[in-house]
Design a protein that fits this description.
Blueprint: E1 8-12, H1 16-28, E2 32-36, H2 47-50, E3 60-63, E4 72-75, H3 77-88, H4 96-126, H5 134-158, H6 171-180, H7 194-204, H8 207-214, H9 229-239
Parallel strand pairs: 1-2
Antiparallel strand pairs: 1-3, 3-4
Helix pairs in contact: 1-3, 1-6, 1-8, 4-5, 4-6, 5-7
Length: about 240
């Protein structure tokens, strides 16, 4: 007898990294339960969450039907994507050659697109609320804007002769799409990248992408760019952490 699939517990906040997982779960048809982790209020530092995500970052998952039928917790979005691809046999590559291609582009996103756009978002949109002197921010803003633009160009060239990033639709697409979706706040214009723009629109037409990207829209209440006391406190929590030992 095949066990009835139990919902995966997803610890989540509506950010690009969180949306990687909701899109994946929707595309794979896996049931899941969302547990909001309000990173602006410090939920990520609670002991129960640290037990499954020691780096105090979301997303994280707990699968009650893990390997050998035993529960397993996984943190880091790339590791979660690889786990889900292995669990379902979907979107991870049909053979060793395809798997290598998918993993290469997944690691490219994890090491390049996500961190660079995250840093650019910080210096472009959040840091001006913390550092009033624009001259002190200009180098970092220019540096990460240009690198974001370069990375968009890498995807543009890659997508000129293929439908999806690694060939067939894969977790590499699930990883990059939510970050490319933030192009406006990054000062980028998808009209400058026609192949990337085509891919972006094509993915968005898929029901799994459309549903996955909307998960948790009701959770985020205060923008970190706001001038409110609540936004100021959230910035302190997110950007003022040192080692906790």
């Amino acid at each position: 007898m095949v066990d009835t699939p139990q919902p995966i517990d997803l610890y989540f906040w509506p950010t690009p990294n969180g949306r990687k997982i909701t899109i994946s779960l929707e595309e794979m048809g896996l049931p899941y339960t969302v547990h909001g982790v309000n990173i602006g209020k410090g939920d990520q530092f609670k002991p129960d969450f640290l037990a499954i995500s020691p780096n105090n970052r979301m997303p994280a998952i707990v699968d009650s039907q893990g390997p050998d039928g035993k529960p397993i917790s996984i943190f880091e979005s790339g590791a979660i994507l690889q786990y889900l691809a292995r669990k379902t046999g979907m979107f991870g590559g049909a053979n060793a050659r395809e798997q290598a291609e998918v993993e290469s582009w997944l690691m490219w996103q994890m090491a390049n697109l996500g961190p660079v756009m995250g840093h650019h978002n910080h210096f472009r949109n959040y840091a001006p609320k913390i550092e009033p002197d624009p001259e002190k921010l200009k180098y970092a803003q220019d540096r990460f804007f240009n690198e974001t633009n370069r990375l968009f160009g890498v995807l543009e060239v890659r997508l000129r002769d293929r439908e999806f990033i690694a060939g067939p639709l894969s977790i590499a697409d699930f990883a990059s799409w939510p970050w490319i979706a933030a192009y406006k706040s990054q000062g980028q214009d998808l009209a400058d990248f026609p192949a990337l723009n085509r891919w972006f629109g094509q993915c968005r037409l898929r029901p799994g992408f459309e549903k996955g990207r909307k998960v948790g829209e009701e959770l985020r209440a205060t923008a970190l760019t706001a001038d409110s006391k609540e936004a100021e406190e959230a910035r302190k929590i997110l950007f003022g952490q040192k080692a906790r030992i």
